[in-house]
Amino acid sequence: MDILAVLLATVVGMGVGSLWYGPLLGEEWRKAAGVTREQVAQSNFKLLMAATLLLELTMAIFFELAARDDTVMHGVQLGCLAALFFALAMAVHYLFEHRPMRLYLINVGHTSLVFILMGAICGFLR
Question: Is this structure's pTM higher than 0.90?
Answer without folding.
Answer: yes
